[in-house]
Amino acid sequence: MELNKSIFFDRYNVTVRDLEAYLSEALSRGGDYADLYFEYRINHSIVLEEQIIKSATKGVNLGVGVRVVSGEKTGYAYSDDLNRENILKAAKTAAFIANASREGGTLQVPTPLNQERSLYSIPVFPAELETAQKIALLRQADEAARAYDPRIRQVQASYVDETKHILIVTSDNHAAWDLQPMVRLNVMCIAEESGKRQSGYQGGGGRRALEVFTGDLDPRELARESARQAILQLRAVDAPAGPMEVVLGPGWPGILLHEAIGHGLEADFNRKKTSAFAGWWVRKWHRSCARSSTTEPFRSAAGL
């Protein structure tokens, strides 16, 4: 298939007239906006453990989602096949969920449909690669990890890839599609000494084909780093217990703060008053004003 053509047009015979019908049905109750998201995805997964292939799987996913936005309401429905009647039914369902209750109109998709650029121009996509090539990467990782140190007792190497086709068409006259590859290889090692076990983990990949596994991402390098971590941790000692002072620097502590209160401070939750912090600022300001008639409560409440 040529990179400037979508699989949905070539293999599944989706036409511009079909797309216009789906969007018109989605806006049949007068929504403000609608879009279509088509996806065809092929996944492969292989796991090597105890120096044998423990599992090998392949999955194929196909479907289309229809979204309709009407004011603050969003309607969504999908079809797990590309049958025209089923997609029209999904579009109608999304329209009723958004429930604008206004008469819609007809839409025109821009023609000709052209893809402006290909972001992942690789000669062979992961779905087209031979399984033997993928297994060879796992065996390289397994051999390198076991050769790193005799204390490495177990090695698990896993490979996953994905080839994803997407097509997006919107009611505001935009259309785009893409072909997205992805490969990843992970290595976990377990080291044992004097009855003590520790593990190490390393992995990497990218939106390319198997040529990504060179340099630092060479399977042997990933395996050696995983083994190094496991061996290093054999000398680890237990962290001291009990209360102690902790200094938090930039980086991960920001994630802790984000998860603890960040989501609750998001505007949509506060506007809808579903957040524990909804009205918190107003309540604190009023309490501060009740204690003093000066501007100092406002500065205090603001943390100034």
Textual characterization of the structure:
With 304 residues, the protein is α+β, with helices and mostly antiparallel strands. Helix content is 32%, strand content 31%. It is built from nine helices and six strands, in the order ααβββααβββααααα. It has helices at residues 7-10, 16-26, 84-98, 131-148, 219-233, 252-262, 267-271, 280-291, 296-301, and strands at 33-49, 52-70, 73-79, 152-170, 174-193, 196-206. The chain has a six-stranded antiparallel β-sheet with strand order 3-2-1-4-5-6. Helix 2 (16-26) packs parallel to helix 3 (84-98) and helix 4 (131-148) runs parallel beside helix 5 (219-233). It is flat, with a radius of gyration of 27 Å. The termini are far apart. Residues 297-304 have low confidence and may be disordered.
